[in-house]
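Many introductory courses stop at the sequence. We go one step further.
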Amino acid sequence: MVVTIRVEGDVTPLINKLLQFRDEVMDSLQDGVNSASSALMMSVMETCPSPTSTHYPTQSTGRLRDSHVLEISQLSDRYQVVIRAEAPYGFYVHEGTINYPARPWMQETILEHIDDVWDAINTSLINFINYVFL
């Protein structure tokens, strides 16, 4: 069996439309990643050991909570989201030491909210598809 497709004429407008559509899909995906990452960052900060923590309330200054940084990078075939606490003692609070138990707020929060992250990204893409096709 042989299938032959013959295209006559200038296909440049079609190619340009397809590229525009691809760019719009990627923009929608970026919006979803940004939204989901920001929400996750807020949840991480809410659970971080501090006076306002929902999981690990302490009598501290809140410096560890306020030291969180969110970085979103678009690599060639994926997005990379990094949330980290820049306070120099953050690792020891999260992982614990011989004298202090671990308080793994980041790990717990990410595991608790990972479905919310996927839902936010999916919702962004579904909204785009509904806008384009419906």
